[in-house]
Automatic annotation (TrEMBL):
GO biological process, one term: dTDP-rhamnose biosynthetic process
EC number of this enzyme: 1.1.1.133
InterPro entries associated with the record: dTDP_dehydrorham_reduct (IPR005913), NAD(P)-bd_dom_sf (IPR036291), RmlD-like-bd (IPR029903)
Family under the similarity heading: Belongs to the dTDP-4-dehydrorhamnose reductase family.
GO cellular component, as recorded: cytosol
Full protein name: dTDP-4-dehydrorhamnose reductase
Function: Catalyzes the reduction of dTDP-6-deoxy-L-lyxo-4-hexulose to yield dTDP-L-rhamnose.
The organism of origin for this protein: Ancylomarina longa
Domain RmlD-like substrate binding as annotated: residue spans: 3-288
Catalysed conversion reaction: dTDP-beta-L-rhamnose + NADP(+) = dTDP-4-dehydro-beta-L-rhamnose + NADPH + H(+)
GO MF entry, a single one: dTDP-4-dehydrorhamnose reductase activity
Length: 290
C-alpha cells in the first residue's frame, strides 16, 4: 500500500482526488484541509505524518483569491510560499515526494505561443508572485519534486467561473465577459486523474528521474468570452454573452493576456491523453445536472 497525504482537500482539486480515490486500490489516502492540518504550522505537519509512512504529498492547499491577494499579500505569501517551504522540508526530511500545484499566472502573458516549462516567468500580481516564490522554495529545498502549473481551474465544487456563469446565465438576459484574455480552462477532474496516473508511473519506474516542473491544462485555446458562450449553450441558458476588453472590467489584480500552457512534456513523460476543454466542460455540466 502506498500512503498519500492530500492537503487542502476540501478545495476544487482536492475534492476531485477524494472522489477518484476509491478507484485506486493500492493507494491509501490521508485527506486533510486547514482544520485537520494547517500547512503553515510546521510542528503540526511533522506530528501529523508520524507513523503514517507517507510516500507522496499532494499539495492542493493554496490562497487562490487572485484579487484579494493584492490586498493580502502577506497572507497569500504565508500559504503559497512559506508553507510550501514547510512542506518541502517535511518531504526532504522524510523521503516524501511532493506534488505541488502552481499556476499560469507566474507568466507575464506577453508570449505569442504556448508557454513551456523553461520560458521566463514574470508574474503580474501578488497571487502569481507568491505562487512563484512557492515553486522556487520547493525547488531549492527538495530536488525530487513535481510541480504542475495549471490554468483556469473549475469543477462542480467550490467557486469558479463555470459555476458563476451558469448561475448568472439562469437569471440574466445578457452578460459582459472579457474577450482579450486567452488561455485554456482545466477541469479539476482531469488534473486529479493525471496526478494519480503520474504517481502510478513513478511507482512503476524504479529508476524515475524526471522530477521537475510540468504544465497541465485541457487541450485547446479560448478566451473567457468563448468559454462563457459554450457554458451557456451547454447549460441550456438563453443568456446573451457580449465581449468586453479587460480595461473595461474593473478588478484589483492584473491578469496575463495570454497564458496558454504547452503540455508536450507532461503528455510525453507520463503518457497522458488530455481531453479538449469543450469535452471536459460538457462532462462537468453533465455531472452537475445529475
Ligand atoms: N482555481 C484556479 O483557477 C487555479 C488556476 C491555476 C492554478 N491553481 C492552483 O491549483 C491548486 C488547487 O486550486 P483549487 O482551485 O482547488 O483551490 P481551492 O478550491 O481554493 O482550495 C484550496 C484549499 O486549501 C485550503 N487551505 C487554505 N489555506 C490552508 C492552509 N493554511 N492549510 C491547509 N489548507 C488550506 C482552502 O481552505 P479555505 O477555503 O478554508 O481557505 C481550500 O480548501 C492551487 O495550488 C491553486 O493555486 C488554481
Amino acid at each position: 500500500m502506498i500512503n498519500l497525504l492530500v492537503t487542502g482537500s476540501n478545495g476544487q482539486l482536492g475534492r476531485e482526488i477524494r472522489d477518484l480515490s476509491s478507484e485506486y486500490d493500492s493507494f491509501h489516502f490521508f485527506f486533510t484541509d486547514i482544520e485537520e492540518l494547517d500547512i503553515t504550522n510546521k510542528t503540526a505537519l511533522q506530528s501529523y505524518i508520524e507513523g503514517k509512512d507517507i510516500r507522496y504529498l499532494i499539495n492542493c492547499a493554496a490562497y487562490t483569491n487572485v484579487d484579494q491577494a493584492e490586498e493580502n499579500e502577506d497572507t497569500a505569501q504565508l500559504i503559497n510560499a512559506v508553507a510550501v517551504k514547510n512542506l518541502a522540508e517535511l518531504a526532504s526530511n522524510n523521503n516524501i515526494i511532493p506534488i505541488h500545484i502552481s499556476t499560469d499566472y507566474v507568466f507575464s502573458g506577453e508570449n505569442f505561443k504556448p508557454y513551456t516549462e523553461t520560458d521566463s516567468t514574470n508574474p503580474q500580481g501578488s497571487y502569481g508572485r507568491t505562487k512563484l516564490q512557492g515553486e522556487e522554495l520547493l525547488k531549492e529545498t527538495t530536488p525530487n519534486h513535481i510541480i504542475i502549473r495549471t490554468s483556469w481551474l473549475y469543477s462542480p465544487f467550490g467557486k469558479n467561473f463555470l459555476k458563476t456563469m451558469i448561475q448568472l446565465g439562469k437569471n440574466k438576459t445578457e452578460l459582459e465577459v472579457i474577450a482579450d484574455q486567452i488561455g485554456t480552462p482545466t477541469y479539476a477532474y482531469d488534473l486529479a486523474k493525471s496526478i494519480l496516473k503520474i504517481i502510478s508511473h513513478i511507482e512503476k519506474d524504479n529508476n524515475f528521474k524526471d522530477y521537475g516542473t510540468y504544465h497541465f491544462s485541457n487541450e485547446g485555446v479560448c478566451s473567457w468570452y468563448d468559454f462563457a458562450q459554450e457554458i451557456q449553450l451547454s447549460a441550456g441558458n438563453k443568456c446573451k454573452i457580449s465581449a468586453i476588453e479587460s480595461k473595461d472590467f474593473h478588478c484589483l489584480a492584473k491578469r496575463p493576456h495570454y497564458s496558454v500552457l504547452n503540455k508536450s512534456k507532461i503528455k510525453h513523460i507520463f503518457d497522458l491523453e488530455i481531453p479538449h476543454w469543450r469535452t471536459s466542460m460538457k462532462h462537468c455540466i453533465h455531472r452537475m445536472n445529475n
